[in-house]
Amino acid sequence: MMKHLLDTPTIESIRDKASDILETIGVEFETEKARQLLKNHGAKLEGKRVVISADLVEKALDSLPKVEDRAGNGRQLMASSPFGNAPMILDDMTGNGRRGTIQDAVKMYRLAETSELYTSANPSVVDPEGNDSEDPFIGQVALMLKYSDRWPSLGLRATHSNTKNGDVYSSAKAAIRLIREIKEEEFSPVMAQGICPMAPLSYDEEALINLEVLVDEQQEITIIPCTLTFMTGPESLMGIVIHDIAICLAGAVYVQLLRPGTPLKFSNSSTMTDMRTLQPAYGSPEYLNVQIMFHEVCRHFHMDSSLGGCFSDGTKSDYQGGFESCMTALAPFFMTSANKIWCSPGHMAAFAGASFKKMILDEEMIQACNRLLQGLDLAIDPQLKEKLKKGMEAKSFLTVGSSEIYRKEQQVSRIFDRSGISPQGSDPKTILEKRVSDEIEARLARYRLPERTKTQKKLLQQYLPTSCRY
């Protein structure tokens, strides 16, 4: 039986409320070009606000490629890329937070490339210090292309502050063309990008320009609302979900008018606000409830949607960080029918920070949880009875059992400490930290740069930060 957090009447009520918001309040579109496009197709303008009819929404959803839910047992935590999007790094040597640097970005790519967990690459150390590229946005994309061969999936977007002369359109376009040339692919999509609307109920100029370029270049697009309760959105969790569905439907209308039939994905980074600090709380049940309600509404109407996990609000690699990472990674499997949760190992401080130490610990957590999610091989060893008899006689199974079966069915963590409490009082924390440090050093040592032709190197060279040129 499929598990659901919401029943069908509640899902349809959310959709109806979202449509009513679009028909009565509308959504701000901050470029004249976008407003005129919507007006030309029947939307009404009230200043910057665009009032969108239910008919226009239905036409957009009819044009949007449909995704069908398929039940299955292949539950798995997927590591997309490390950190999410973190401007700050927790220095694991000093324990202090600091601005991320070019060296941190390179280290992140080297560690990700030496793990089989990651499916994509993202300039996760956002706008790092030391990026002296003429166009900082393209410089970060070039850095990714030099150090990683994985599928580019960008959380970073072109902005007025990170592009040459503040030219968002030209930089966004040039970055995609650069990826095309390095990947040697002219027609198929070569990257994915997440675009976050501006809550409440607004698409800012930068979001619209980036969307326009992505549609024009026919790349993979995900709209990711990030609304905070009692700050940029309503104070109730259900109010946040209704707001986010409304703004996503408005985005779907805009994208489908730009190019009918354009595939579009949806995800959610909205959560509660901790009113003590005015900061978002992602390592919380409230975040999970908002995300899963949003996901279930999308899937009910055959809109492609994904869930994220492995998030932590803590600023240290401690009990809180480990608990929050594990809770947000595992809980969705028991709350809804999702088969895959996308994780960002090393994430901390609610997307504001990252830690290389926590990255390794989160990877270990993901691998252990996947063993749990994938279940057991319930086949019975045909030699079991004979082995039990021999074990009784030998008073041990060390010489009787099969090491092959042991290795197949059991996996001892290379990182977590299982050595027990020492009577000498040695600090288990030291053992854990040494294993993490050893793992980082070993992976950095075995990293090798992706192979690039002389032409590709020359192309990247003009965009790379000085310290990372070939």
List the defining traits of the structure above.
44% helix; 4-stranded mixed β-sheet; globular; alpha/beta; 15 helices; 19 strands; single chain; 470 residues
Commentary on this structure:
It is built from 15 helices and 19 strands. The strands form five sheets. It has a six-stranded parallel beta sheet, with helices on one face. It has a four-stranded mixed beta sheet with strand order 2-3-1-10. A four-stranded mixed beta sheet has the order 6-5-19-18. The chain has helices spanning 8-24, 32-40, 54-63, 102-113, 136-147, 168-183, 205-216, 237-258, 285-300, 319-335, 356-374, 384-394, 403-409, 428-446, 454-461; strands at 27-29, 44-46, 49-51, 76-79, 88-90, 97-99, 120-121, 151-154, 192-195, 202-203, 220-223, 265-266, 272-274, 279-281, 304-305, 307-309, 340-343, 347-348, 353-354. The model has no long low-confidence stretch (mean pLDDT 95). Helix 5 runs parallel beside helix 6. The N and C termini lie far apart (55 Å).
